[in-house]
Task: inverse folding
């Protein structure tokens, strides 16, 4: 079975910026926060890859896989994100980040999504600035989820070129 070339793919909607230019300000602010240096960018990309997998977003999954490759991450670590609980290649801080994003994005019919025990483990590994940065990295994915799932930007294309005209 062959797959269509990226150039053959089309988004459902055009680039949002001509319609809602304020979106650029919000996106820029979120990008600035997650790049403030308080947590490694690799951790951000790992948790955003996991979010893309949970959400079923090809766009996020391809984007974050590419970001991790560009950062020099091994194929073992990239592919193990889907099964991170059983993988031995993640640090404790990365594991907590992955667990937090799963807790936020997965329904929990029996109680809190982020129990005190998970928060305690996260706060033991991250100082307040780093924990807020981690929260904003998850918020970043949450903010752009509707666009990724409804407008369907073209996977693998850089921002600004990932929407059909």
Result:
């Amino acid at each position: 079975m062959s797959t269509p070339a990226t150039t053959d793919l089309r988004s459902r909607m055009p680039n949002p910026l001509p319609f809602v230019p304020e979106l650029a300000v919000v996106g820029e602010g979120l990008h600035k926060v997650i790049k403030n240096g308080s947590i490694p960018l690799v951790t951000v990309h790992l948790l955003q890859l996991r979010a893309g997998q949970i959400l079923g977003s090809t766009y996020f999954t391809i984007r974050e896989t590419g970001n991790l490759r560009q950062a020099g991450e091994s194929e073992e670590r990239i592919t193990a994100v889907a099964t991170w609980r059983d993988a031995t290649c993640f640090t404790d801080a990365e594991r907590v980040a992955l667990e937090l994003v799963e807790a936020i994005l997965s329904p929990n019919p029996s109680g809190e999504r982020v129990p005190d025990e998970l928060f305690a483990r996260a706060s033991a590994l991250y100082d307040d600035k780093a924990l807020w940065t981690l929260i904003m990295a998850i918020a970043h994915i949450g903010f752009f989820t509707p666009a990724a799932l409804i407008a369907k930007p073209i996977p693998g294309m850089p921002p600004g070129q990932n929407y059909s005209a």
Q: What stands out?
A: The longest helix spans residues 128-151. The two ends are 28 Å apart (CA to CA).
